[in-house]
Design a protein that fits this description.
Length: 358
């Protein structure tokens, strides 16, 4: 007989074993109301207190039969909750965890927890950011080209000796080098399409949920990454990573281990201890009401242990912006970037000449 069949047999079994003994409610000399007795199952007709010595059976009733108990035997349900605590697996709890089947709900939770400007990928890969990084990088690249040219000069391959001719040759080499670098500018991300626009999609993606994993009600991951970089071989430039720069990037990756509670009250310290022990980092609750703490205090207490508290209403009202679903990556503004490169090149060569480095 399977475990489920044994449990069902215990649940459905009549009261042949449940003879009322003296001193029990309903026994000799003790009038008992029906609410004092187990109304069904293995201990039918015996005092509810018999369940204190049969905790496994009582906990099974609470978790497997809570809906039936609340509807048909509310007095027994209240007694069990008083003595054994609220059941983990209630319809409300299951409804709460089942929300994680929805991909958008998982994204909403991540967005709610990371409600900061830094969590906006569009800011990190804007055209302004790319041009700013390109402008900052150019002097380092030009200096490297000049250094390599001077190494050639020392090795006997020679640069022109006349200053203006020498400067013109360095300008020619640097111009070719920068043109190649600009041509090798690439976007790395999950691409929906590359023409006529570069579309990054999905920008942020949630993995499928796993339920009841290592003490967590739900576990899932959320991540996304993009980089705009010059694709070239670093070996051509020694160990200087600045020679193949990432001009713009955004990267996020996190695993969420969620404890879901329909209601949290003054029992929150016990919940926190359990969550820390099981490495859960998000507490999702439908309602909070405690005499010993405000919601803000609850958040601070849990965050001190690296646990975020999210209310269900907060999560379901969090907007999933279109920029999280897909984002148009700015194409390289070749004309603007090339003009900047030539301006910086002229300026750098002029400075080098004034310092007699050429």
């Amino acid at each position: 007989m399977s475990t489920g069949q044994i449990q069902k047999a215990l649940f459905d079994e009549g009261g042949t074993e449940g003879n009322i003994r003296p001193g029990q409610p309903g026994g000799w000399g003790h009038a008992a109301s029906p609410g004092d007795l187990v109304p069904f199952g293995k201990f039918k007709g015996q005092a509810l207190s018999v369940l204190l010595a049969n905790a496994d059976y009582a906990l099974w009733l609470l978790n497997a039969k809570s809906a039936q108990l609340r509807t048909s035997h509310p007095a027994m349900y209240a007694w069990l909750v008083t003595h054994f605590g609220a059941p983990e697996n209630t319809p409300e709890h299951n409804q709460l965890t089942n929300r994680f089947l929805d991909h958008d709900f998982r994204l909403q939770l991540a967005l709610r927890i990371n409600n900061t400007p830094a969590f906006e990928p569009a800011r990190s890969v804007s055209e302004e950011q790319v041009i700013r990084a390109w402008t900052q990088w150019l002097p380092r690249r030009i200096a490297q080209v000049v250094d390599l040219a001077q190494l050639d000069d020392w090795s006997g391959q020679g640069l022109p000796k006349e200053p203006e001719s020498r400067k013109a040759e360095l300008r020619r080499r640097a111009t070719a080098n920068l043109a190649t670098a600009l041509d090798k500018l690439r976007v790395y991300c999950k691409l929906k399409q590359t023409t006529p626009e570069i579309i990054w999609s999905p920008v942020l993606e949630a993995s499928g949920p796993k339920f009841e994993v290592g003490g967590a009600d739900v576990e899932f991951s959320v991540g996304g990454r993009v980089s705009i970089a010059i694709d070239e071989d670093l070996n051509n430039y020694g160990d200087n990573s600045a020679m193949a720069p990432t001009l713009a990037a955004w990267n996020y990756s996190a695993k969420y281990r969620v404890e879901a509670k329909p209601f949290v009250g003054d029992d929150y310290p016990t919940i926190l201890r359990t969550m820390v022990a099981t490495s859960c980092n998000v507490l999702l609750i439908d309602a909070f009401d405690a005499e010993g703490a405000t919601l803000e205090q609850l958040r601070k207490v849990f965050l001190s242990q690296g646990v975020h508290v999210a209310l269900l209403d907060e999560v379901i009202t969090t907007e999933v912006p279109s920029s999280v679903r897909e984002l148009v990556i700015p194409g390289k503004n070749q004309a603007a970037m090339w003009k900047i490169a030539m301006d910086v090149l002229d300026n750098e060569l002029t400075k080098l000449c004034s310092k007699e480095r050429l």
